[in-house]
Specification:
With about 325 residues, the protein is α/β, with parallel strands linked by helices. It is built from eleven helices and 14 strands. Helix 3 packs across helix 4, helix 5 runs parallel beside helix 6 and helix 9 crosses helix 10. It binds adenosine-5'-triphosphate and magnesium ion. The site of magnesium ion (MG) has 5 residues, from helix 1.
């Protein structure tokens, strides 16, 4: 990666319009090599369009983008040789089995038959698909399908892998499997540009995140920076005794220096952990608040620290009531 200063992707003022709709509207990005970078945004934010521009599947209307120092327009062939894309719309053939798909794609990439078979078997094993290797992909579950899509995109280890919403619609167990795969891919030295609608996914995987909305980057930073800008999360408390709720509210307000909401459930309260006036992390602040409740003689049945939702992030970053449709 000589000459690129450890930068996998760099864009300046990148624009792509469909008619009057500026799907990508002046985006500046800098993705460090060897990391997972999250593009986080709601439906229609411009995530897939941005990925397609970087993968040379679309041509920008204005601005520049370079992948490992290569311009996506002037050096599109070079860029294509370095990247791989697992789309929302992937390339495996539904009528072929898992093995047939991977072997076919490996042969197209220039591997001889034995090498193609070896690599396919290795990936099917690594992705927990050995038992399904001889089944047609159209009979795979959603999670299996997502895994074979990713396997297909890393037959040749790419320098940069685009994962476009790799876990949308998957159950928690399948999401975790995909996350493990992404981590393994990065351990092999691949840079991953991940798009997602889920803050928790970006949080699990990405070192830096750009929040994108209506074609524009509205926030960028490390996970910590991003969360600090929107409040670190919410504390949910359930009490044994509804009569202690008013007192619990006072204790939490003081301990967390934040507004406390009374939930519809008469024994439950929610408070934001925002980090104002303290250097403590969210978990430490929450633990301290719990200790204060105990000291006040309030019996807590259940206590949870949740992350801000994507909705809360958008509310905090924009003045709108929730994400764009
Ligand atoms: N080929 C196209 N022709 C016309 N408009 C398009 C095209 N592709 C995308 N758009 C529009 O551009 C905007 C951004 O779409 P894009 O697919 O990039 O969003 P996204 O962030 O990937 O959303 P999602 O989370 O739903 O996948 C949307 O308004 C969409 O309707
Ligand atoms: Mg998309």
């Amino acid at each position: 990666m000589a000459g690129t200063n450890g930068v996998a992707v760099e864009t300046e003022g990148l624009v792509k319009a469909f008619g009057a709709n500026r799907a990508v509207d002046g985006v500046d990005l800098r993705v460090p090599a060897g990391t997972v970078y999250g593009l986080l945004g709601p439906n229609g934010a411009g995530k897939t369009t941005a990925v397609k521009l970087l993968a040379t599947l679309l041509r920008p209307d204005a601005g520049h983008a370079r992948v490992f120092g290569h311009d996506v327009v002037a050096e599109a062939d070079t860029v294509r040789g370095r990247v791989s894309l697992t789309g929302q719309y992937a390339s495996v053939d539904e009528d072929l089995t898992g093995t047939e798909n991977l072997v076919l794609l490996a042969r197209l990439l220039g591997h001889g038959r034995p090498a193609a078979r070896d690599r396919s078997a290795q990936l099917l094993d690594a992705f927990g698909l050995t038992d399904a290797a001889d089944r047609q992909v159209k009979n795979y579950s959603g999670g299996m399908r997502r895994r074979i899509d990713i396997a297909a995109s890393i037959l040749n280890t790419p320098d940069l892998l685009f994962l476009d919403e790799p876990t949308t619609g998957l159950d928690p167990r399948s999401r975790n499997q995909v996350w493990d795969i992404v981590r393994a891919v990065v351990d092999q030295g691949t840079t991953v540009l991940l798009t997602t609608q889920y803050l928790d996914e970006a949080d699990q995987l990405a070192s830096r995140i750009a929040v994108i909305d209506r074609g524009k980057v509205i926030a960028e930073g490390t996970k910590g920076e991003l969360k600090a800008s929107v409040g670190s999360g919410s504390v949910h408390v359930r009490l044994r005794d509804a009569e202690q709720r008013a007192e619990a509210g006072r204790v939490l307000t003081t301990a967390l220096n934040a507004a406390v909401q009374l939930d519809p459930d008469p024994v439950a309260l929610t408070a934001t952990v925002n980090g104002h006036g303290t250097d403590l992390g969210a978990a430490e602040q929450a633990a301290r608040a719990l200790a204060e409740l105990a000291r006040a003689g309030i019996t807590v049945d259940n206590f949870a620290l949740g992350q801000p939702s994507l909705d809360e992030v958008f509310l905090a970053l924009t003045d709108r009531k929730g994400p764009a449709a």
